[in-house]
Amino acid sequence: MEVSVRLKIKSLYNGLSTKEQNIADYILENPISVAHNSISYLSDELNVADSTLFQFAKKLGYSGFKEFKMAILIEENNFSTTSIHEKIEIDDNELTMAQKVFDSNIKTLTNTKKILGLDDLKKAAEIISNSNLLYFFGVGGSGILAEDAYHKFLRSPAHVRHSTDYHIQLMEASLLTPQDCAICISHTGKSKETIRIAEIVKEAGAKVIVITSHASSPLAKIGDVVFISISEEIEFHSEALSSRISQLSILDSLYVILMFMNKEKSKEALSKVRRTIWDVKH
């Protein structure tokens, strides 16, 4: 299946130069304008040379800017049709509503899977594996994901920490060392609380792994490794709800990779946890 322009841009975003990121931001925010205007008009809008836009299109795998514009136009037309089709109608029955929610979540997972990068997964797993302490940070809905990840990674060889209290999170962040790392989760990547935590973590010299749905967000710019979750939304279906499916899958993937990187220690940790839980349940 052909990867969309949006997904291509998001998958490459963190490796782009500042000028290229500005172009990417403009395209993501103004796809219709890009599709319907000349390269000269757009270069004036962005204050870049025509050749810069041409090279940007080539970097995404297109033969030139004309083919790039056509891809955006087709994508936007398909997106409009899909949105109308998937929108939950007032006369939909309960089963139809549920099926549309499932379809949306499936699409979210499929799109996020497309932009996962091997290098990012390897780097993140190595950072976690080599860290003395692994902290999970998030507030609001993202805090629930952080807690779920903490619960999961307790079964791994990693030494994990998590708190639901924001003030304690701030204090924990300030105590990190260059031998530690933090996973910061925020759907928008604009949460002032999470951004501040990430800044404190960086100031302490620790590594930051970011999970967000917005590649151009302030939080994403702080991360040593950034994973982008793609949201596919329908009416009355919150973005945070849709994105959490893909974010959970990213965290599950890191957990599984870490466990396989440290098989013997993983077996030992998992065995201890299982014995303890068994004693309580039986």
UniProtKB/TrEMBL annotation:
Query: What gene is this protein a product of?
Result: gntR
Q: Which UniProt keywords apply?
A: DNA-binding, Transcription, Transcription regulation
Spell out the InterPro entries in the cross-references. Answer: Homeodomain-like_sf (IPR009057), HTH_RpiR (IPR000281), RpiR-like (IPR047640), RpiR-like_SIS (IPR035472), SIS_dom (IPR001347), SIS_dom_sf (IPR046348), WH-like_DNA-bd_sf (IPR036388)
What region holds the HTH rpiR-type domain? Answer: 3-79
Q: Which residues form a coiled coil?
A: none
Enumerate the spans annotated as SIS domain.
Answer: 124-264
Single GO BP term: carbohydrate derivative metabolic process
Instruction: Please name one Pfam family that this protein belongs to.
Output: SIS
Q: What is the protein named?
A: RpiR family transcriptional regulator
List the signal peptide residues: none
